[in-house]
Amino acid sequence: MSLIKIISKDFDINENLTDNQLRETMIDAFAYLVDNDFPKLIQILYKADVDQYKLKELLETAEGRSSAEIIADAYMERQMAKLETWKKYSK
């Protein structure tokens, strides 16, 4: 299981992206959701189990970064943590 495989459950993304391209793609996707489909944004974050209190704090205190960038980073961080847990316990 890879990070892109996990993320592709929520988003239609190219599986050959570099880490930087993946992050940029996620920022663009979350920017779209913030502006155009907030219920879907909430659903994706809930399904991914992104800590809403931590995210709220990040959004309130971050300077010089867009909301989409903060949300994308929190989402990807949570998905990477899941991946590490799965790797740890699947051995």
Average per-residue pLDDT, rounded, comes to: 93
Low-confidence stretches: none
Shape estimate: globular
For the record, give the distance between the C-alpha atoms at the N and C termini, rounded to a whole number. Answer: 13 Å
Radius of gyration over C-alpha positions, nearest whole angstrom: 13 Å
Order of helices and strands: HHHHH
Helix share, percent:
over 70%
**Oligomeric composition of the shown chains:** single chain
**Tally of contiguous helical segments:** 5
Give the helix/strand class: mainly alpha
Total E-strand runs: 0
Major β-sheet profile: none
User: Approximately what portion of the residues adopt beta-strand conformation?
Assistant: under 5%
What does this structure look like?
Helices cover 74% and strands 0% of the residues. With 91 residues, the protein is an all-alpha fold. Helix 2 packs across helix 3 (38-48) and helix 2 packs across helix 5 (67-89).
Entry summary:
This protein is an all-alpha fold and 91 residues long. The protein contains five helices and no strands. 74% of the residues lie in helices and 0% in strands.
